[in-house]
Amino acid sequence: MQNAWLLDEPSLYLRFGIALLIGVLVGMQREYSFGEPEKEHAAGIRTFALMGLIGCASALASDLLGSPWPFVSVVLVLGAFFAVTYFVDAWRGQAGLTTEVSALITVLSGALVFWGKITLGIALGVATTVLLSIKPEMHRFVRHLTREDLYATLKFAVITAIVLPILPNRNFGPPPFDVFNPFVIWLLVVFISGISFIGYILIQVLGAQKGMGLTGLLGGIASSTAITFGISHQSRREGGLSRPFAMALLIAWTVMFARLMVILVVLNRDLAILLWRPLLIPVLAGAAYSLFLFILHRSERSAEMRIKNPFELWPAITFGIVFTLILFAAQAAQIYLGTSGIYITSFLSGLADVDAIALSLASLSHATSGIQLSTAARAVVFAIIANTFLKGVFVLAIGSPGLKRTIMPGFFLLMGATILAVFLT
Question: 69, 309, 368, 394 — which has fewest CB within 10 A?
Answer without folding.
Answer: 368
